[in-house]
Amino acid sequence: MTFYKEHSKVWVSVDVIIFGFDESKLKILIGRRQMDPGRGEWSLYGGFVGADESLDTATSRVLNGLTGLRNVYMQQVGAFGSVDRDPGERVISVAYYALINVSDYSEKLRSEHGLEWVDINHVPTLYSDHNVMVSMALKMMRQKIKTEPISFRLLPQLFTLTQLQRLYEAVMGEEVDKRNFRKRIKDMDFIEKTELIDKKMSKRGAALYRFNRKMYNDNFKL
Amino acid sequence: MTFYKEHSKVWVSVDVIIFGFDESKLKILIGRRQMDPGRGEWSLYGGFVGADESLDTATSRVLNGLTGLRNVYMQQVGAFGSVDRDPGERVISVAYYALINVSDYSEKLRSEHGLEWVDINHVPTLYSDHNVMVSMALKMMRQKIKTEPISFRLLPQLFTLTQLQRLYEAVMGEEVDKRNFRKRIKDMDFIEKTELIDKKMSKRGAALYRFNRKMYNDNFKL
DNA sequence: TCAAAAGTGTTAGATTTACACCCATGA
DNA sequence: TCATGGGTGTAAATCTAACACTTTTGA
């Protein structure tokens, strides 16, 4: 295939914005860069794309190595290709965001990798163009959450309506009216009330809800 | 930089979905592939990303080579990286869409490159994953046109409200009510009526409008 | 004179927003 | 008993959608 040979190859990496939700706050996982250039700077977690893996596969691999989780929800944010975005070599990077349930993620693994959860509203300066990736990811997630039930990726299987509302508010960055919010949820038949009561957050107790994926797929997915 | 060296490099290309609007139809530019593999198949136009150019620069270069135009409106669609998406070698491609005013594009250049305008609703089977790129591009453009004034990239500087409506309908793939549409346009102060009358389309003549970019940037852009 | 496209308002329905009080319980 | 979070409905305002006739003029 001599045609291809005339052109130059580049390194391609993936960088992942891992979102989690905890105590009413939307957070992302970042760590101190372990390698030069930029050693010690805050950075997204990433990895190079191997010759025999797709971009999605590479991202899954990176996520799995980091969290031990599989089938994590993820969406591509876009490709970042400024010539000098990486101070070392020419590297084109494809950003993804991923949503995980914080309690599925072992604290042990987190600290082994030297990762920290930081509030999306207080992300420090990150390596290279990673701050741009983060803000694009957030923008896309906001868009997505309006039309698809992705909240459930960030919550435990059972959750209260208050938790769901706090999550929505954290993603959108604005408060919403409790009654209007609950009215909207009532119209979504794929969010099911269970008989269970959560007593952790209040003395009275709050009904626990669950996302019925099958109902959603059968009746609501377009 | 030994660190990078452990990993493999890949070819990266850009592929462009060039949208144009003509005779009430939204179209894209495609051509017969001139090279193996896939010689003769319908394909998007693209090019490899050079060592010293960003993804945006590469796309601009490709667009300029094809149309002679500069400062063309373009947006990234995303990165496509299946291992076997290109039957020849491993190539990761970043898709962009671009909007051009058909009358700015010389027929001569078009035919020299062997390109054809095809109706977005009748795109033939394209090389590799190009059909997926096209449908993602359309989806993104639909989203964009709702919140940003990109229609003007597809229209001549002066246009009638009927043209603007036909364009909107072609992009959205559905008809809209004429009176409601015109009501909405009236609220957009950056779409200015001129004193000029177009007589090409009707005996009575239709008022020509113009997009006031400065007004938009100053007062409407967020 | 008539065909063809331009232009123009009103009303009903749907959606969205604002808003305040009682309930249950554990400490 | 009281502080805390859970739970509930209504009315006004805004936005969206439906709808039909008159105007101009070149052929």
**Shape by Cα distribution of chain A:** elongated
Strand proportion of chain A, as a percent range, falls in 25-35%
For the largest interface, the chains and their residue counts are: A-B, 35 and 35 residues
Largest sheet of chain A: 7 strands, mixed
Q: Please identify the oligomeric state.
A: homodimer
State the distance separating the first and last CA atoms of chain A. Answer: 42 Å
The radius of gyration of chain A is 20 Å
- Number of distinct beta strands of chain A: 10
Protein structure class of chain A: alpha+beta
Q: H/E element string of chain A?
A: HEEEEHEEHEHEHHEEH
Fraction of residues in H or I helices of chain A: 25-40%
Give the low-pLDDT segments of chain A.
Answer: none
Mean pLDDT of chain A: 95
Number of helices of chain A: 7
